[in-house]
Design brief:
The structure is a homotetramer of 331-residue chains. The first copy, chain A, is an alpha/beta fold and 331 residues long. The first copy, chain A, has eleven helices and 13 strands. In chain A, 29% of the residues lie in helices and 21% in strands. Chains A and B meet through β7, β8, β9, β10 and β12 of A and β7, β8, β9, β10 and β12 of B.
Chain lengths: 331, 331, 331, 331
């Protein structure tokens, strides 16, 4: 049984990763680490996860004796520890943005100087529905952002069909997407009975979505605007697609049904999906609608931002990397 | 002091209208009516409104002895009672859609056969920021829909400047927008921890928004998609505007500040407004942002759907119609 | 593999029972029935449960060919169908109150005339932590009410120790406890940002709690008051226990730790439990505190009202009845 | 027109106090101060309050030139500034606990060493329904805690009638009661879909409630346990009263109706009040119920913790102190 560790397990996505691996029938979770919460047991911080392990301060010499790792560090900090782990031969799924953008210059434009550019070519973008085969052989998998996961899955069939001329993505997320840090913005009284946009007009998930749409054939500049909602887990992307003018008339729903017929974690629904229907699952639920008045396609995609948008997708990737059934421990 | 009545006061917007008129220093609220709740006191149905009046079954002979009325009937049912009240000389603000669309054919395409087409030319669209002078002299005011109120105020300055080539409006509303009827869709367990689109792709507020944008100079077909959020009161429209290509570069924020400099109930904010900031007010709070990467303008508008989106705007209209200070009873 | 059916699967607890049995590795869910929703697929009503079976109208001849049934009918209606199923040899867990009270006269005082009194002696109260052995051999198990489950587990150790002279139970429940019926009381706008008591002063769960406390040695009249909270799933009982005066000083926490040391689904916590920590689990999480100023014991017990308070406890009972591992399908 | 200041206006209760005084027709709000937010405008921190004043760092020489002050400092820190303000002749309502307990020794047992014991005799407990006349002449008014406000008003009629032998108070509060500090405990994800007790078994509001019940004739040790609910504003106390055995049978509701017949801000309801019915009001809404089975009285009291539980009650006190109509600015 492969051994595993979660580095940065005190945040929401790291803690859920730890829980999924702790309960996983085919991984042996050996270490969980954290910085300021080191010394605490995870089931003290997150009683509902019921992981009776203690968080330790990260020590490469002590903790790199595992086959697999999920790294849940902040952007910028992750790249270095991923590089260290790779040197020790650990196969890594990284939850940060550090290895998602294949072009280091784009990363540095939207984030910061990249501390491990040399690893970029090796990293595989961890969206199994797009890169399943590459993930199987990868040693470094860059787990997608939560918004990109929902957006790319929602748009991929149209992008592949060459139909996208332009797209506006209006995204809505629960408060867990903002992370565990206690701030004015995450205070209950701020979020409750409220909704507002943030990251306007340049949210960092924009280039990640554009990169993958381009890889699918839609080389467009998107407008992407996230909003914070008064709910804890769940994310909805509402995608407004202007079609390429020359395109012939198609049955969009048929394209989606075909595209995702064999995907265990994508559902094509007839009506606009609610995030409740995917809560605490690895599923992305999508519906597509044609607006005959304007000729636009409207696509909705719902995920759980902590699950398919982060931790359970990381486990899905680990399953692929280690030759396990893809849904093991997350179905 | 002008006397007033609210017909259809058992629903959310009618009840709030009754509360605002009951507390109003310059109106004498004489009658409140309802169908299935007739006989009950309003402060039994809505303790927080504290209106100690009994709901009566509507009786034209008995209840038309007032100077002013707010009609809060369903679409289709409102037109007839408005016509009856007009015959008796009552000046009316109608909360339904029945007199909002100036073209009866458009109404009948989106709603149903119109029972009082002859009144359409007389009705004034009750958005004071656009039609203040006409409202003063009107006998029938068609109170705008909640989504159109927020959308039109958010887009008017750009429309007037001739800048709008195309617009996508992604709207988010609290559950009170769905009305008081208890259904699967309004059950707490359905709405809580959820978000989903509805009315896709043809929500009935679409032609109302298009009518007013056209009147302002933007003759466009819009994409309008509302979403239901887990909060009670509040509505946010996120408007994604593709600019007319020939247009010169402008400072959008300056245009908005100038357009609304003298408006008592429109705020131009620097950051995306949250609906909490307008809860239980007659205010629409707007911010405008340029997305330099795509050239789009992004405009956010927040209102309270029951207040500026319905009842307090109705009172604002009544104030204008009766020569009172515009903000009396709603500031 | 024993075959199973859920009768009354369109409500919240019936639907969850169906989901748990559908996913259960050792039961074959053959039938799900409903009255007004017959003909619909359950995954249409409850997308998140992902049970692709159609609800049928109940037909004893057709549906009684199973080994096990969960009956989720309203009080009063359940007894008859349970009696019918017993005649056909089906072993039943009944989610209603019809077989919980061992004294038919008490049932009829709090509920209504009982249609199957003759079955009462046969029924076992389905709280495994109290009646595990009897449940194994039972053919009719009366699944406890949600509040009694939390209250009895919270008080049992003190009751057994003869310490309880008097008890006030202040209970708080999420809105799913009110069931799926869409009413004014379950409308989102009613529940949101609100809390209020209901069923004052005679909630029907009172005699059920008193019956079991008496069986444990505490023959007291309790005060039990439930409150409705703005959350969907979760129930907390706050129990204020006046101790018997003659009692010697004890370490309450030690008593609880010992009482529940071997219970797989009861946790004894150091701090007051939140309902989040037991959401979507079969676990009851309890803490006990001594108030030295007043000499009272304060005990908190948290469950998920739909899980341990209904459906997962029903499956726990079925597991016992059919000789399966107690936690199969619910851990 | 008396001039006023709010010291400590960056927290929830201080900010609301500032808003109420800014909008007040008979006070001139001259200064608002804060420590870490000094320099910011209040309408930036709290857009919905719409107070366009800048927060300043407190400077006794500069800011003590007012007739009235509301002090919203933390416990312990308030006493000193109140003493300083008194030296300059400012009449003060203090929102902290520093002057609520008439016995300095009790204060020091539950809080900390008291820095201004000499002022205690001068301070009046600011519950107008109990101490209206004393408040009129007071120079230092100790504004009651939110829980004590609701609890004392709920129990006063029974206490005065000599009926209380024992009482358990189970209190429920929205998250604004925890204050503006961003912590793990106030993070949206912690509070949402949750409920738990805190401050068990010794919450600091206990002696304050006991002091006032004793003053009314009920010299009892109470059990008081607060719970945190997923809502922003609102507080409900559920009071379980064991009656004095010798007492004669009375009509409790009649006692309450009589006790509060002339109180503008207390409502006696027939059914258990919800906190929605008092949101953003200065009203305490109470219902009383007899449990015939146990002989207990059950009393519910609902307030808005930020309004009647803090800021609007402070203004009510100021109105009394300055000879203004008691409800000015808060009705």
């Amino acid at each position: 049984m492969p051994s595993a560790a979660v580095f940065g397990a005190a945040g929401y996505t790291g803690a859920l990763s730890a829980k999924l691996l702790y309960d996983h029938p085919a991984f042996d979770l050996r270490w969980i680490t954290a910085r300021s919460d080191a010394g605490q047991r995870l089931d003290h911080l997150y009683p509902h996860h019921r992981v009776p392990l203690a968080l330790e301060e990260f020590d490469l010499d002590r903790h790199a004796d595992v086959d697999a790792a999920i790294v849940a560090y902040p952007h910028g900090a992750a790249a270095e520890v991923v590089a260290d782990l790779r040197e020790r031969g650990v196969r890594v799924v990284d939850l940060s943005a550090d290895f998602r953008l294949r072009d280091g210059a784009v990363y540095e434009e939207w984030y910061r100087p990249h501390p491990a550019l040399e690893l970029l070519p090796e990293a595989v973008y961890g969206l199994p529905e797009l890169y399943r085969e590459q993930i199987r052989g990868a040693d470094v998998v860059a787990n997608p952002g939560c918004y990109p996961t929902a957006a790319i899955l929602s748009l991929a069939p149209l992008a592949r069909a060459g139909m996208i001329a332009d797209v506006v993505i209006d995204a809505k997320s629960g408060a867990s997407g903002a992370g565990r840090a206690a701030t004015d913005a995450t205070h209950f009284v701020t979020v409750d009975e409220n909704v507002n946009a943030y990251g306007v007009p340049r949210h960092r998930h924009t280039p990640e979505i554009e990169q993958e749409l381009a890889a699918l054939g839609a080389d467009v500049r998107i407008t992407f605007t996230p909003h914070l909602l008064p709910l804890d887990q769940g994310e909805l992307v509402s995608c407004y697609v202007t079609l390429n003018p020359g395109g012939e008339r198609v049955d969009a729903r048929a394209i989606y049904l075909e595209a995702y017929a064999d995907e265990p974690f994508v559902e094509v629904a007839e009506t606009p999906p609610g995030v409740r229907s995917v809560r605490e699952t690895n599923i992305c639920r999508i519906s597509v609608h044609e607006d005959e008045r304007t000729g636009r396609m409207i696509v909705f995609g719902a995920i759980d931002n902590l699950w398919k948008g982060a931790a359970s997708q990381a486990v899905q990737n680990l399953n692929l990397m280690f030759g396990l059934p893809e849904g093991e421990g997350i179905s």
